[in-house]
Design a protein that fits this description.
- The complex is a heterodimer of chains A (352) and B (473).
- Chain A is mostly helical and 352 residues long.
- Helices cover 71% and strands 0% of the residues of chain A.
- Chain A contains 21 helices and no strands.
- The N and C termini of chain A lie far apart (81 Å).
- With 473 residues, chain B is α/β, with parallel strands linked by helices.
- Chain B contains 14 helices and twelve strands.
- The N and C termini of chain B lie far apart (60 Å).
- Chain B has helices at residues 2-44, 50-55, 75-83, 103-111, 152-162, 181-191, 224-247, 262-267, 278-292, 315-335, 346-361, 363-380, 385-413, 420-453, and strands at residues 62-68, 90-97, 113-115, 129-135, 141-146, 167-171, 175-177, 195-204, 209-211, 214-217, 257-261, 298-309.
- The chains are: A mainly alpha (352), B alpha/beta (473).
- At the A-B interface, helix 1, helix 3, helix 6, helix 8 and helix 10 of A face helix 13 of B.
Chain lengths: 352, 473
């Protein structure tokens, strides 16, 4: 009978010890991790290549090839931008890591049975900028684990190369990842040329709308002409995305195409075109936006009013006229609502 | 007569031993599942790029709905905290549920509200809305002023009607969110599009350092009652819900911090204004909806995005809160009794619901009866004192063991309480919890069960709050 309480007391003592030990061990692991990160930065140094401590770098790289905790430390240093060096030390740094077998270890980790190891290897390979990293990572875009696919997507964007962009576009075309997740990675200058090529490629016809979205996010002027063409000839979804793209580019030269889109048969396109015109600061578009305040779609009226307000003093003046004299009661209502958001009107409201 | 009573007592004692074994076996299973789920989560943390999700214009936008009834003390801090969230696209909808204090006025003064003719976007049941306002200071803030509906569900439904975005996050007015909570939640919907609802961990803010609407350092207060609740919350969330999530049978997504796909919630008719466990009821209805349509879906829990809340610091407030929880649970289980043990509802029907009936609904009653029977047995000499002490000792020790298990998971994964003193208080609370508090809680729940069986009407009641400014220790 006494065995039961004794056993229970033993269990409690063991558990309490385990909890305390976990806390102490974790603190120790944190200290070790901090030391390792300091060693990386110290080994790299801040001076010329001759002052880099190559043997220390190789020792750390060997450790990283073997231990998951060391890989986590290196990844956190890479993510914070402290590594790899971006000057002349980059090539010797990469060579040291390669000689220590880190590249080989990461390549085999990309085919590991453990999902975490695959994802981490992809991120490390990309952030360290090893040659041909895109080819190592691209197959992981079709991985069965969603976390690994997301990590591969992130890693390809970290490569910052046209080859990486092509791999991402391939995943978009094949539907391996949600389109939004690919598009948000293709927003830098290195992605523009592959995106433009894909926009003209019939193989990518089904994903043209998303490519247009990505081109807008790059904010690159080279995207303007293809987006204007798409606005004139694409499907409804493509026209919407083209308008959104032009809104992000904020180029006055696209205002004629956007004004033409205000009479599009699709309300969503009209609304997006109105929003884009609001961002252009082009007073000539006021004339085209005023009739839209009486559009049959609430969203178009709202976007038109917001665009007029965004156009500054002439737009606000037009809103005042609409609030008082527009023949359509919905237009008058929308203009009045928008005017209430103007600071002067708001102050009057607050005073009242 | 005495013989019959003796026989009944012996049978009951045997039943209690078997019942306890069943309960602890279930809890052990949950601890193992929770440990595995958390370990997996921790290992994958470095793969996750929350920064891009927070900044991306293509991340799924979120409507945050806060029901507020007489919350003038905490509402500004809460709204400020939410508006500072690191996320690109979200709106905050405060639903003033017919407050009789200055809740609407303080919001109006701070955020310069003007009337907005926003059109409701969903047909879900709620009391009439008196007005909808938007802020001149922050266009992401919307205030919906409605008649008091007598329940949180009614206010949530009003918020749901005016929410614009595909995801909606339900939070309480007395909660503070971690700045990076939104990207962590949204990521699950983006990476696993079959996700319908998701809960995050609710932690207790009492005693913690709060700066600019955010908890900057987690600490424990001196009050034992609050520390007991901290351990209880850690056990419920880190062990319980993560374990259920692993099995795919999460029944409760806390109303204080739960995110859902708006269209799915609208498809099942929104929250049930007559329910006192509206959060769990909604989750169960979503399970039923998806299972009956043979849809692949996920309702889960992740322990990383944190929401901080103020725990009751007095026994009467705690009693009222727990009374409501127990009655809400019983109401929900009765409402969905048809799903219990039904294979069609998978792990929810075959495992989670029977567990909740056997151990959550009936558990307190059996525990209280057990104490009474043991006392009776001791009086009549049917049970040796040594046996009774051994039995009680084992029950207490196993209870403490599960609380320590929760602390172990916390240490493994998060280690939020960095100070040794705070950690020591929690270990102490884990020990004391089973000597008095647990028995008191069983009595409260038994009383609530009795009231529910007698059909006594239930009220929401008001919770007295100290506010987050005083949460600093």
């Amino acid at each position: 009978m006494l065995l039961l309480p004794l056993g229970a007391a033993g269990l409690l003592a063991a558990l309490t010890t385990l909890v305390l030990a976990k806390r102490l061990l974790r603190a120790r692991a944190e200290r070790r991790s901090r030391r390792r990160r300091i060693r990386w930065v110290a080994a790299l140094g801040t001076g010329p290549v001759a002052e880099m401590r190559m043997s220390e770098l190789r020792s750390l790289a060997r450790q990283t090839a073997r231990s998951a905790a060391a890989q986590e430390d290196l990844l956190s240093l890479l993510a914070s931008g402290r590594l790899p060096p971006r000057d002349g030390r980059r090539v010797p740094f990469q060579q040291a890591l390669r000689r220590a077998g880190l590249r080989r270890a990461l390549r085999s980790a990309c085919a590991s049975r453990r999902a975490v190891a695959r994802g981490r290897a992809a991120l490390l390979t990309a952030r360290l900028g090893f040659e041909g990293c895109e080819r190592m990572i691209a197959p992981l875009m079709a991985d069965g684990d969603p976390d690994v696919r997301a990590a591969a997507c992130h890693a390809l964007a970290c490569c910052g190369s046209e080859e990486g962009a092509h791999a991402l576009l391939g995943a978009l075309r094949d539907g391996l990842v949600e389109p939004e997740r690919v598009v948000e990675r293709l927003t830098a200058e290195w992605a523009v040329r592959p995106l433009l090529r894909a926009l003209a490629d019939p193989d990518f016809a089904a994903t043209r709308a998303w490519i247009a979205e990505a081109l807008g996010l790059t904010q690159d002027p080279r995207a303007e002409a293809p987006l204007v063409r798409l606005l004139g000839s694409g499907s409804e979804e493509e026209r919407i995305r083209a308008c959104r793209g032009l809104w992000r580019l904020e180029r006055v030269s696209s205002s004629d195409a956007l004004v033409a889109a205000l009479s599009d048969r699709s309300a969503a396109v009209r609304a997006q075109a109105a929003r884009a015109l609001g961002a252009l600061s082009e007073p000539r578009s006021i004339e085209a936006l005023v009739p839209l305040l009486g559009d049959r779609s609430w969203w178009v009226r709202a976007r038109a009013a917001e665009a007029l307000r965004a156009l500054g003093a002439p737009g606000v003046e037009a809103l005042r006229w609409c609030a008082g004299s527009h023949p359509d009661p919905f237009a008058r209502e929308r203009a009045a609502e928008m005017l209430a958001l103007e600071p002067a009107a708001a102050d009057r409201l607050a005073a009242a | 007569m005495i013989d019959a009573l003796h026989h009944a007592v012996v049978t009951f004692n045997a039943f209690v031993i078997l019942y306890m074994l069943g309960q602890y076996a279930n809890q052990l299973l949950l601890v193992c599942c929770g440990w595995r789920e958390i370990s997996e989560y921790v290992k994958r943390r470095s793969l996750r790029d929350y920064d891009t999700i927070a900044r991306s214009e293509l991340s799924v936008p979120v409507s945050i709905v806060i029901p507020a009834y007489n919350e003038e003390d905490v509402i500004l801090e809460s709204v400020r905290s939410l508006l500072r969230s690191h996320y690109a696209a979200f709106e905050v909808i405060v639903v003033n549920d017919g407050s009789t204090d200055r809740t609407l006025d303080v919001l109006s003064e701070e955020y310069r509200l003007i009337e907005d003719r926003r059109v409701p976007r969903a047909k879900v049941r709620s009391k009439p809305v008196a007005g909808c306002y938007r802020s001149l200071r922050d266009e992401r803030l919307v205030v919906v002023d409605k008649q008091n509906g007598g329940s949180r569900a009614d206010a949530m439904n009003a918020g749901l009607r005016y929410a614009r975005y595909p995801l909606f996050l339900a939070v309480d007015a007395d909660t503070l969110l971690d700045v990076d909570a939104l990207p962590r939640l949204v990521r699950e919907f983006q990476v696993r599009p079959e996700t319908v609802g998701l809960g995050g961990i609710v932690r207790i803010a009492n005693g913690s350092t709060v700066e600019a609407g955010h908890v900057t350092e987690a600490r424990t207060p001196r009050q034992l009652l609050v520390n007991l609740q901290i351990v209880e919350y850690l056990r419920a969330f880190l062990v319980g819900r993560t374990g259920w999530s692993r099995i795919g049978a999460v029944l409760i997504v806390s109303g204080a911090f739960g995110i859902f796909r708006r269209e799915d919630v609208i498809a099942v008719g929104g929250y049930d204004p007559d329910s006192f466990a509206e959060d769990a009821e909604l989750v169960l209805r979503l399970h039923r909806h998806c299972r009956e349509r043979g849809r692949r879906y996920r309702i889960g829990f992740i322990a990383d995005p944190v929401c901080w809340t103020e725990a009751p610091a007095s026994l009467p407030t705690l009693k009222s809160q727990r009374n409501r929880w127990q009655r809400g649970l019983l109401q929900m289980l009765w409402q969905y009794r048809g799903m219990i043990g039904h294979r069609r509802y998978g792990s929810v029907g075959m495992f989670a619901l029977p567990y909740f009936v056997a151990f959550e609904a009936l558990g307190p009653v059996i525990e209280v009866c057990g104490y009474a029977v043991i006392t009776l047995s001791l009086i009549f000499g049917w049970l040796s004192t040594l046996m009774a002490v051994a039995f009680f000792g084992v029950a207490v020790a196993l209870g403490i063991a599960f609380s320590l298990g929760a602390l172990l998971v916390e240490e493994r994964a998060f280690q939020r309480y960095r100070r040794w003193r705070c950690f020591g208080r929690l270990v102490l609370a884990a020990g004391i919890e089973n000597l008095g508090y647990r028995q008191w809680y069983a009595l409260i729940r038994t009383h609530a069960t009795w009231l529910q069986l007698r059909g006594r009407p239930q009220k929401w009641g008001e919770m007295s709050r100290a506010g987050f400014a005083t949460a600093k220790s």
